[in-house]
What we know:
Layout: E1 9-11, E2 15-17, E3 21-26, E4 29-34, H1 37-43, H2 53-60, H3 68-77, E5 81-83, H4 91-96, H5 107-115, H6 136-143, H7 157-168, E6 197-203, E7 213-218, E8 223-228, H8 233-239, H9 245-250, E9 253-259, H10 261-268, H11 271-294, E10 297-301, H12 306-313, E11 321-329
Antiparallel strand pairs: 1-5, 2-3, 3-4, 6-7, 6-9, 7-8, 9-11, 10-11
Helix pairs in contact: 6-11, 7-11, 10-11
Amino acid sequence: xxxxxPWRPYLVCGGYPTHDAWVxxxxxxxxxxxxxxxxxxxxxxxxxxxxxFAQIMNELAQTGRDDILEVIATLVDRQIVVxxxxxxxxxxxxxxxxxxFSLQCSHEENVANYYDxxxxxxxxxTTLQVPIRKTCLGRLARKRTTCRRFSGESVTDTEVFxxxxxxYGRQDEDRVPAPPPALPTFTVPSGGGLYPLSLYVLxxxxxxxxxxxxxxxxxxxxxxxxxxxxxxxxxxxxxLIGVQAETARQAAGVVCVVADFERTxxxxxxxxxxxxxxxxxxxxxxxxxxxSENQVGILEVYGFLRDRLxxxxxxxxxxxxxxxxxxxxxxxxxx
Length: 335
């Protein structure tokens, strides 16, 4: 059993005092805390993440104030102060607010950015180039593409199962079980072998035996569980940012990757955020490789309304957050 780490208060919101309040800058707007300027002036310099809660309380005991705990509780409740090992919980909120999803660039600016090569390293030494063999994986990699037009046709239930298994499936079903304490392995690497991701399939069209609805992929048992019977298609176009409504309407469905950052944080602290996103990237590449081999179109999507999508999936975004998604379906004929 892991030893619990001491709680280390860390101030994450900047702010300033007025004559009767402290004003803090939070992602979703300003927060005012009134009537405790003197206490905050003593508290805030101590919340640098280096000292644990017991140490800070011992240091403040000499002030004789009996409202310190109440003030700290307010700071924590408003997410002005967090545990230094759990700052990652705020990363998505800070990345989402108050800035818009994308900057307003003109077509000419986008083209200029595409052809800008200033980020590429310059060749300064001896170079080497060798022939690349034509392997099975190499052929799939050459065919990998983003599908931006779907035909409107459905895919089969077998293809849905194969897609999600390839993305995040258990590998050892046909292997000789390893002796304990060996852990199950899946189709992507995972920090510490913790596998904190969940896959949800939002079917907008009937796919064989699978009716429209929201499904949860149980990766341990290779099962799809229908968790919501309501057709998600009316909501999808409104939740996806930067995807044309017609594209969303013609797709067979969406696979959404949800991350439980807390699971990985038990071992890696704030690094859990980066590790979970790296793992989600592996999952999406598997989706593209499956699509390349089986003529299933894949369109990876990061732009979505996180809270609304989480509500549709039935998860709490502060605990299990959607991090990436992909539309899938039958590609439209080129032309």
